[in-house]
């Protein structure tokens, strides 16, 4: 599979009234087409900034970003973004919210109505096209936001803690829904490439082919973990020793060995 994202020595420095803040330093990452990558790290380490730099929404201060063979110097069009909040326009119906990217791109939204309805059917919202956002639960709103991001069929999907505000059961349901929409049960060909930011280590492991672990600010890549868990994944996957070991290893990287240092006291007590 070809590389769709290439980040080479990417750095990002913010200028503020009180001085400079270095958000990212020397980020080097290559993402293959159809790959699911999770980004985890402490708050403020630059995960969201990295998504915005990749999409061309923030200019980097050093290094280079290439998406689908083209250097990123301005906002790119072939990308869908999903944020922690669904950000649906409350005065528009769910169907009209999903059609918004076509309008913003200067396209005729009528030509995309069938696709919008198909996407809403795919995520179980086929009976809610005429509803307003405040008539839907938080999980249903996030499903609609995902449909909106997929409307123009972008090859790249950037997701910034999209399920962070949901309750645990709804979050688990959305994880499974995302994998289904991504096409987990099929081959890698034809899948979207996904960069997924999360603070949840179990969520990162459950979803991803690889987990990129970032250091505290300035954000750097501390480790990249290949997740060898078989697909398709299910809630039973989380109960396996392999899943637990991946989760523990990443936690250990983030905490500087805290998990291992805690083992001896627990064993002594036992």
TrEMBL record:
<dbReference type="InterPro" id="IPR003593">
    <property type="entry name" value="AAA+_ATPase"/>
</dbReference>
<dbReference type="GO" id="GO:0016887">
    <property type="term" value="F:ATP hydrolysis activity"/>
</dbReference>
<dbReference type="GO" id="GO:0005524">
    <property type="term" value="F:ATP binding"/>
</dbReference>
<keyword id="KW-0547">Nucleotide-binding</keyword>
<feature type="domain" description="ABC transporter">
    <location>
        <begin position="5"/>
        <end position="241"/>
    </location>
</feature>
<keyword id="KW-0813">Transport</keyword>
<comment type="similarity">
    <text>Belongs to the ABC transporter superfamily.</text>
</comment>
<dbReference type="InterPro" id="IPR017871">
    <property type="entry name" value="ABC_transporter-like_CS"/>
</dbReference>
<keyword id="KW-0067">ATP-binding</keyword>
<dbReference type="InterPro" id="IPR050166">
    <property type="entry name" value="ABC_transporter_ATP-bind"/>
</dbReference>
<dbReference type="Pfam" id="PF00005">
    <property type="entry name" value="ABC_tran"/>
</dbReference>
<protein>
    <submittedName>
        <fullName>ABC transporter ATP-binding protein</fullName>
    </submittedName>
</protein>
<dbReference type="InterPro" id="IPR027417">
    <property type="entry name" value="P-loop_NTPase"/>
</dbReference>
<dbReference type="InterPro" id="IPR003439">
    <property type="entry name" value="ABC_transporter-like_ATP-bd"/>
</dbReference>
